[in-house]
Structures are given as C-alpha cells and as structure tokens.
Design brief:
This protein has helices at 12-20, 33-36, 100-116, 157-163, 166-177, 191-204, 215-224, 269-283, 300-306, 325-335; strands spanning 3-8, 44-52, 55-65, 81-84, 93-94, 119-125, 141-152, 181-185, 229-236, 239-248, 252-260, 288-292, 313-322. By secondary structure, it is α+β, with helices and mostly antiparallel strands. It has two domains: 3-139 and 323-351, Aminopeptidase; 148-315, Aminopeptidase (3-Layer(aba) Sandwich), CATH 3.40.630.30. Helix 5 (166-177) packs across helix 8.
Length: 353
C-alpha cells in the first residue's frame, strides 16, 4: 500500500506539478486548480494524490457540505459531505504504468479517506477522450449516459472539411454568402451580447437553473484562465447573432457555453462559428475539439454537432458510489416530502430537491 496527500487551492503550485507527473496521459484544462476554483460556490476544490513506488494517481474533485442543501440546513446531528466532479469532465488520472493492484490500493485509500471525512456519496463525470472510467470499473458503478462529438484536429483542413455532413458544408457556404463573419476575442469585449444570447437560449430550451451561472464564474474565467479561454462571435449587420465561450489548452478545446438568436437561424450563424473555431484551433496546434452532445440522446442539437464529425462519436460515462448507505437512507427520508427539482435517476437522490 502506498501513501496519499490531499491538496487544496492554496497548494496550486504542487497541484500543477502533480499534473505534470502524469503529462503522458495529456491532462485536460478541467483538471487544473484554476478550473476547479470556478466552482467555489459548489464546494471546496481538492486533489487526492496517491503514490505507490514510481506510480501515482491524482483525483481532483469538489468537496461539498450537505447541510447547505435547502431543507437540510440545521437539521443534521453531524456534518456530512459528498464529492463531485465540476461541470465538464473529471475523475482520476493515473501514471502510465499504474496497474490493477495500484488502482485497487488507490481506491482503498480513497474510500478510507471518505469514511474518515464523513463523505457519503461520490459522483464522477469521466473524460470521454481519456477513457478514465476504465480506472474505476471495479470500484464504482459506471454508467454510459450519452454521446458526445469530437473533431480530430490532427486531420488536414481539407479532410476535416470533407468530413462535414453535406448539408453542413452547404450551410457554411450560405453563411459566408450572406455576409456573416466570425470574430475571435481573448477578452470579454462583447460579454453583454454573450450573456444575453446565452440566457435567451437557455430560456428557449427550458434549461434548468443549474446552467444560469453567476457573474463571479465569468470574472474568474477572465482573470484566472487568461490564455485558456476564447470568445467566438458571429456578426451580421454589426450585431452579434451567435456566440460561444470556449476553453482550451495545448491539447483540447471545449465548447463551454453559448447560444444563437433564433430569428437568425436561416443564415446559419452557428455553422460558420463552429467552422471558424475549428480553423482557429487547428492553426494553434490543438489536437481535439470536443463539441459536447445534446440535451437528450440523438436530439437536434446532437445531430447538428455530429454534422461536423460524423465519425467523431464518443461515449460519455458517469460514476456513482455510495460510501455510507445508512446516512443516504436517512437523508432520502428527510427529503421525501419535498418537490423534486431534478428528474428520476438523479444522483445523489437527496440532491434532487
């Protein structure tokens, strides 16, 4: 058995050095302390670092107080916690040679840490390209929940273009002919346009309150993720009509948040935006562009994204683990009279309300 330590945002430099120790698996921006710091309202950012011989595992997560859930404040006899990946992708990363024994020992240590710290549940959003759900197949309940689309930017520009769906290529040409143009900005110069269109899009699609992030999150991105974010705006007649906030590092780019004004759909502003983003990312040597999926499997949003990479389908997995069944049953009983805000199958169940 090896040994472990737990880092926080105050240990930023060491956290980054530990990620450097697993650089052969190409960690995403989502693993960095600055990214976890975006979600300080959700919980405390931590990174569990396990070492055994020359092998290591690093597992960043958010550590959340359960008594902050509406309906539970002041009602618990002891402080309880749960942990989750932040918005995006997460889960553990292991050094290249870490085998099954090391992974078993890692999770045994992690489960003991959870027990000592009153952590009752764990929720993981695994990374679809890194495939790190395979690291915990024996330890947590793994579930494939949806598909996401990824553009391989290692292909030539012509290969990428010819790989688009035929109608997509036609719509991009139509957007150019209509005089639309896309601007890329590494500052929030058009932030008012962005937030207005993004919120309008959320409301139109009936999205949950979860997606209406507070202003502090954007301030944090602008201040702490300089050089790792870019805004793309489609302009028609001097007006922003489609917009997207993207996050990236040297290896991955992500469609993070965005939207389009529906009265401009006919000009295909989102088609030209994605196309120009792909060109921008490729010129900077970024390897993969993850567009995400839809609200539901195979819906119109998913089909639109797939038109940029018909062969770019990836499986998205989540992980669930109950560390203290008795505490979970108690919380579920305390919350059962509340009106659920989330659908069936939401994990953990006591956070549905």
């Amino acid at each position: 058995m090896g040994h472990y330590e737990v880092l926080g945002l105050q240990d930023r430099q060491q956290w980054l050095e530990e990620l450097e120790n697993v650089k052969e698996v190409c960690p995403d921006l989502y693993y960095r302390p600055e990214y976890h710091g975006l979600f300080k309202d959700w919980g405390e950012a931590r990174a569990f670092v396990y070492r055994e011989g020359n092998d290591m595992v690093i597992y960043p997560f958010l550590f959340r107080k359960i008594d902050l859930i509406p309906g539970l404040k002041g009602k618990l006899k002891q402080q309880l916690y749960d942990i989750t990946s932040p918005y995006g992708y997460g889960g553990p990363l292991a050094s290249h040679m870490a085998g099954e024994k090391v992974l078993d020992n890692f999770y045994r240590c992690f489960a003991a840490y959870c027990e000592r710290n009153n952590v009752i549940t764990e929720f993981i959003r695994f990374h679809p390209l890194l495939g790190n759900h395979r690291l915990l197949e024996k330890q947590v309940e793994i579930e494939r929940v949806s598909s996401v689309i990824c553009v391989d930017l290692g292909k030539s520009e012509e290969e990428i273009w010819l790989g688009y769906g035929r109608n997509n290529r036609k719509n991009i040409k139509k957007a150019y002919q209509a005089g639309l143009k896309v601007i890329m900005e590494d500052t929030p110069a058009h932030f008012t346009d962005f937030i207005s269109i993004y919120h309008h899009t959320l409301a139109r699609n009936g999205a949950g309150q979860f997606y209406f992030f507070n202003g502090e999150l954007y301030d944090h991105i602008h201040q702490e993720l300089k050089g790792n974010f870019i805004y793309a705006h489609t302009i028609k007649d001097n007006q922003v009509v489609s917009t997207e906030l993207l996050l990236y590092n040297n290896f991955y780019m992500h469609s993070f948040l965005g939207g389009t004004l529906e009265q401009y759909y006919q000009y295909r502003p989102n088609n030209i935006l994605k196309h120009e983003v792909i060109k921008w990312a490729k010129t900077r040597g970024i390897k993969y562009f993850l567009l995400g999926g839809g609200y539901r499997e195979g819906d119109g949003i998913y089909r639109f994204k797939r038109s940029f990479a018909p062969d770019g389908h990836l499986d998205f997995y989540i992980g669930k683990k109950v560390h203290n069944h008795e505490a979970v049953r108690m919380l579920e009983k305390m919350m059962e009279s509340k009106i659920p805000r989330e659908g069936e199958g939401y994990f953990p169940v006591y956070r549905r309300y």
